[in-house]
């Protein structure tokens, strides 16, 4: 068979891989994009979009149940098969749009199959061909990690890659792992009428770095499900029934969702052939800005590097890796965007920027008595905002409150532009809005630094707004 050559070879056609190939091709490079199936991105197929479809149904059910507080009486009847049919129909629509973009790639770019390294600039394909590339981008994504005790439960086991294929909602569900995936799907299932218990080895939910925010999150989730934190759940099947034992108790469940993380999908790449030093997880050292592996013409982007496993980060990383692959050895180390992570619980859990240092000023905004949140019967949670002293320049925030997914973007923009608490208070924030609820935290910072509080806007917000 004819061997192939190119300037840049990209392994993996997910979000990062597609961005890397496009970036390299726009820079004038000849490219090859290798993927076993070209099925679409993780986000569209088994991640962001199907999970949000389930969450949307759960939110509607929850709001209907609680409509009595607004004087509206309603009876909630959840049609599980209909929920799952809608989820798959819209999921498939999103996937088809992604695949349409892949179909528009130039002729000769796509190679369907698997590749592994045979040298630092050489790849072997499953059909016997080889590729010699000037640079190689690894964008193979990640896969669910299934601990050994759960691997022998094929009829009861669910992951985020299989749960959306359920034809009906289970009557009961054990969720193992309290990271973002576990939190989102556990709460959604619970609000759709499923009996849910959430287990985690840690005493911390979702890696939340603020104690106050964590306490608010824990209180909210405990209203919908049983929480077994700091536990060591052990599964077993007796007479076809799944049983989870956590030492201080045991229950039976229809299904178990294992959400214990998604490590990089590097199996079969034969990274040892690259000559790079590998750690005990088989991963090379990766520069988090350039995405380069050591001094080699090898770059790792997206979930495959486990730096920031989020879609917008994967897209940015893919573009960076593609540009650097073309310009190698003259690689660039662009500044990363302000970290922004959103867990789509209800209300959303949001982490922005850096954690506070001992010298930072900290502001707190309570949303249990915030005006717009009370109007909408969503008055839950709080926001904590951090700023560097002196000057009051915003550095980070942790939020668990209604509208946090939108306000997180506002705060990320402010942090990225070096704005202070005074600068945000000087903005024309409309009344009554959820954004207005951030003002108490910003005023706390101004008083602690201290900074002048813009009096003309400060006096227009009524108490509790």
Automatic annotation (TrEMBL):
Q: Which residues form the FAD/NAD(P)-binding domain?
A: 7-318
Which Cys pairs are S-S linked?
A: 43-48
Active site per database record: 431 (proton acceptor)
Please report the stretch or stretches of sequence annotated as the Pyridine nucleotide-disulphide oxidoreductase dimerisation domain: 342-440
Identify the InterPro entries for this entry: FAD/NAD-bd_sf (IPR036188), FAD/NAD-binding_dom (IPR023753), FAD/NAD-linked_Rdtase_dimer_sf (IPR016156), Pyr_nuc-diS_OxRdtase (IPR001100), Pyr_nucl-diS_OxRdtase_dimer (IPR004099)
Binding positions for NAD(+) per the UniProt entry? 177-184, 261
Cofactor (UniProt): FAD
Cofactor mode of binding and number, as noted: Binds 1 FAD per subunit.
Q: What are the binding positions for FAD in this chain?
A: 52, 140-142, 303
**What's a Gene Ontology MF term here?**
flavin adenine dinucleotide binding
Task: List the keywords (alphabetical).
Answer: FAD, Flavoprotein, NAD, Nucleotide-binding
Q: Which family does it belong to?
A: Belongs to the class-I pyridine nucleotide-disulfide oxidoreductase family.
Q: What is this protein called?
A: Dihydrolipoamide dehydrogenase
Annotated source species: Salipiger aestuarii
């Amino acid at each position: 068979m004819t061997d192939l050559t190119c300037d840049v070879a990209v392994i993996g056609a997910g979000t990062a891989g597609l961005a890397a190939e496009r970036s390299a091709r726009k820079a004038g490079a000849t490219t090859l994009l290798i993927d076993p199936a070209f099925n679409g991105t993780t986000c569209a197929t088994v991640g962001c979009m199907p999970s949000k479809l389930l969450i949307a149904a759960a939110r509607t059910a929850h709001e209907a149940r609680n409509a009595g507080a607004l004087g509206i009486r309603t009876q909630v009847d959840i049609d599980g098969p209909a929920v799952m049919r809608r989820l798959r129909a819209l999921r498939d629509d999103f996937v088809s749009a992604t695949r349409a973009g892949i179909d528009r790639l130039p002729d000769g770019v796509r190679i369907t199959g698997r590749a592994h390294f045979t040298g630092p600039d050489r790849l072997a394909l499953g059909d016997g061909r080889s590729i010699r590339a000037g640079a190689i981008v690894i964008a193979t994504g990640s896969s669910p990690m299934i601990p050994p005790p759960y691997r022998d439960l094929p009829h009861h086991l669910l992951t985020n890659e299989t749960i959306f294929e359920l034809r009906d909602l289970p009557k009961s569900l054990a969720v193992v792992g309290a990271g973002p995936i576990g939190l989102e799907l556990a709460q959604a299932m619970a609000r759709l009428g499923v009996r849910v218990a959430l287990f985690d080895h840690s005493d911390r939910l979702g890696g939340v770095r603020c104690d106050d925010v964590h306490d608010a999150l824990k209180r909210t989730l405990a209203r919908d499900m049983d929480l077994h934190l700091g536990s060591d759940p052990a599964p077993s099947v007796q007479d076809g029934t799944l049983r989870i034992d956590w030492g201080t108790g045991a229950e039976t469940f229809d299904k178990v969702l294992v959400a214990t993380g998604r490590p990089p999908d590097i199996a079969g790449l034969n990274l040892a052939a690259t000559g790079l030093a590998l750690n005990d997880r088989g991963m090379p050292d990766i520069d988090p800005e350039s995405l380069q592996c050591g001094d080699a013409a090898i770059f790792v982007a997206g979930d495959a590097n486990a730096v920031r496993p989020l879609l917008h980060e994967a897209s940015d990383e893919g573009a960076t890796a593609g540009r650097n692959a073309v310009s190698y050895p003259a690689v660039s180390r662009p500044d990363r965007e302000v970290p922004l992570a959103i867990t789509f619980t209800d209300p959303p859990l949001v982490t922005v920027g850096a954690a506070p240092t001992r010298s930072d000023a900290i502001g707190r905004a309570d949303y249990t008595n915030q005006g717009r949140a009370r109007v909408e019967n969503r008055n839950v949670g709080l926001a904590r905002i951090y700023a560097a002293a002196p000057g009051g320049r915003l550095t980070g925030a942790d939020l668990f409150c209604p509208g946090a997914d939108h306000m997180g973007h506002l705060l990320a923009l402010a942090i990225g532009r070096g704005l202070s608490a005074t600068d945000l208070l000087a903005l024309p924030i409309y009344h009554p809005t959820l954004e207005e609820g951030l003002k108490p935290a910003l005023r706390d910072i101004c008083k602690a630094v201290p900074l002048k509080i813009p009096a003309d806007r400060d006096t227009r917000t009524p108490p509790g707004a």
